[in-house]
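Our preliminary data section would be incomplete without showing what the modeling component actually yields. Below, a chain of 169 amino acids is followed by its predicted structure, encoded as tokens that our downstream tools consume directly.
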Amino acid sequence: MTKVNDQVTDAVSQMNALLTGGAPSQAMGMLDVTGTETIGMGMFNAITAQQNAQTSASAATTASCAKMLRTEILAPEPIDTKSKAALESALLKANLTEQQIITEMALTTIQELSKSNSGAVNATTVDAAASSAKGLVKSKLPTTELPLFKAAMTSFEASIKKLFSSDKS
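Predicted structure:
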């Protein structure tokens, strides 16, 4: 066997000692670098996912706004003087119809009183005549005027009660 120089042997042994002694610290260093890289990639993935979610939300908002802008919104019809006049005319006609019903009730009540021949006009005879007149007038009216008839009857009955309550005082 050949003899190796002592300096070479010594250099190889020092290198082995150096490598063996430095291995744990180098391993920890590699572990730290790997851990740091992993955390960095995790943060990168989280940020990318957040950006993608924001992009999707913005796209949905934009699509909704575009759909709203495409939707046709009908403007309310302006109130013109013709329709206002027509409404006033209808209101006057309804008031006139109610007054006609009250007048018809009064005349029919007087006719019913004249038929009774009792001679005395008091609350009882007027109530009886008004009840009879109510049936007669109601039978002559079209069904479209029945709500007006009810309102007119309320007004008419209040007038009758007021008339007889003023007689007592």
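Helices lie at 6-70, 81-116, 123-140, 146-168. The radius of gyration is 53 Å. Preliminary results of this kind motivate Aim 1 of the renewal.
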